[in-house]
Design a protein that fits this description.
The structure holds 2 protein chains of 2 kinds. Chain A is built from 3 helices and no strands. Chain A is mostly helical. By secondary structure, chain B is an all-alpha fold. Chain B has helices at 3-24, 28-48, 52-77, 90-112, 121-127, 131-140, 143-165. Classes of the chains: A mainly alpha, B mainly alpha. The interface between A and B is large, with 50 and 54 residues.
Chain lengths: 122, 168
Amino acid sequence: MITPLAPYLPLAVVLLLAGLMAMAIPQLTTRLGPKRPSAIKSSPFEAGSESSGPARQRFAVKFYVVALLFIVFDVEAVFLYPWAVNFQALGWFGYVEMLVFAATLIVGLIYVWKKGALDWES
Amino acid sequence: MNVELVLFGAFALLTLLSAGLVILARSPINSAMALVSTFFFLAGIYVLLWAHTVAVVQVLVYAGAIMVLFLFVIMLLNLGESAHRGKPTLSRILGGASAVGLLGVLGITLSRVPAQPANLGPQAQATFGTMASIGQSIFTQWLLPFEAVSLLLLVAMVGAVVVAKSRI
């Protein structure tokens, strides 16, 4: 009987190892590391500077725009995979197809750029 | 015992558990994290259905990009833990009604699925659902829809800029 699982055995091994490591390393550091707590050491770490204010603050909408645009280009990249796999078989016709596809998105990129959506300081 | 059957059972159970966590978790961040694991276990079910490409795209786009967007929205709105639970608001009634409607549609569809799966033969099974075979049909048979997707993505890009950028 043919199974769809055979090529996924290495992936399963990697996932298993990653999961075991993620569980083992924090455990090892807490079990083996020395524990000499002080008031400064147990304060929340914030990139070396003293922490100020609550952790939950509203994020700027700029992050949202970048994330939305990222999804659009991510979906475009997804379409590149099946094209790249068939690149030899499709030949020049496939190349022009992908050029038309990419050109439409480059128009969008130019629009986004000109509108200043990629400028962080604005 | 069949390995695929065991894996399907495990993936299905874990998908249901994490999907339940999505709606039961108090903090929206925990809901989003449970949604990530739902997407991962769904990808496992896609693999068992021979839908290799769909599984990869599921992890790449949904568990990757879409979840980042969800987290940004949660942080953008600065949602804390939901304080008032169980109050029947209009959006909750509508949400519940649409969930019941979806359940009905899924039930009708499931009852129409033939009991015996279609036999594609070993030749079709070897290439079914792979990147190569899907690319072959996208770039020959489904060329126009593929190019239309680029227009859809363009509209999405312009829409994102118009909606979000005008308010800053």
